[in-house]
Amino acid sequence: MTYQTDTSFAANTFAQRIAALRADWVEKAAKRKIYRSTYNELNALSDRDLNDLGMSRSMIKRVAIEAAYDNQI
Fold first, then answer.
1. Which one of 17, 24, 25, 61 is at 20 to 30 Å from 72 when CA atoms are compared?
2. Domain housing 58
3. What's the number of domains the chain is made of?
């Protein structure tokens, strides 16, 4: 088992920390948008259309998560 340690310097200015928080927030918001749009589009399909894609209705949430988060969850 391996461990990774992330070290950062306390020398970051307040503005840099705020910018990093904002960048993180923007990235998370973009991923949530991809999740929501993928989920809504797949959920709008009929069962027959989903079957043509090789999916069942129970797979919609997992596919949307994979589309948005690249299997990071």
1. 17
2. 17-69
3. 1
